Amino acid sequence: MFNHVSVDIPEVSTKTVNRKRFYVTPTGLFPSITTVLGARKEKQKGLAKWRERVGNDVANHIMRTAAGRGTAVHHMCEDFLNNKEVLRNESKYDTVYIVRSAVPTREIGFLPGDEEDKTALFQVPYQNMVKFMFEQPNEQAFSMLYDRLKNQGSLMFLTTSFLRGITLDNAIIIVDEAQNLTFHELDTIITRVGMDSKIMFCGDIFQTDLQRNSEKDGISHFMKILRGMKSFSTVEFNLGDIVRSGMVKEYLISKIKQQGQTESG
User: Fold this and answer.
1) I need a labelling partner for 123 at 20 to 30 A (CA). Which of 7, 113, 158, 215 fits?
2) pTM to 2 decimals?
């Protein structure tokens, strides 16, 4: 820690134009260093050859991790200038990974763009969740918080389509909406767990969006395997644990009663 003369450093927001990041300043848009370097054709050719050699899954993972490390250094510099503690080593975990399958409740057709563009809709719930976990001065700061956590490598969002070939070390892995995962996907996820990591599977088998019975049975088969392992324990919630709203709780109770009457009738 140190003390220095206060420096008024104005905050700037970012804007993406044609998949390139720019900083919005009072005097106009300024490209980020990544945007500047990415414009070099020599670098683009080299990256294309490297991606072809290692494969898309491994390349995407490495690039996300590298981008997170670079952004983390930027935030360290910012904390240093603001007289804040720069390095914090309280946790052995480097990253929280949120993993889910990109299965919509209805077919929405082809989604354009890269991996980030295709998964944007599925990340909305987690963008809202961080509002309940952190304090921010205003709504704009909240809107930037999720991206900042991702950019600094503290939080990463993955779909089951991009897991092959990677190992998740020193991580907390939260597999959300597990009822929408086939056994093959669940098997792929758990075999990605590396050293000093924890993994949690969250889901409700009664709310699956899968259509085929063979796919729906995947989570039940998977749970039988986990119950035979000392490394895992199971926590089951019931109607008394519903916290979303009283109306939702009332609806689910009525729904279960109606289903019971239908089956008995």
Assistant:
1) 215
2) 0.61
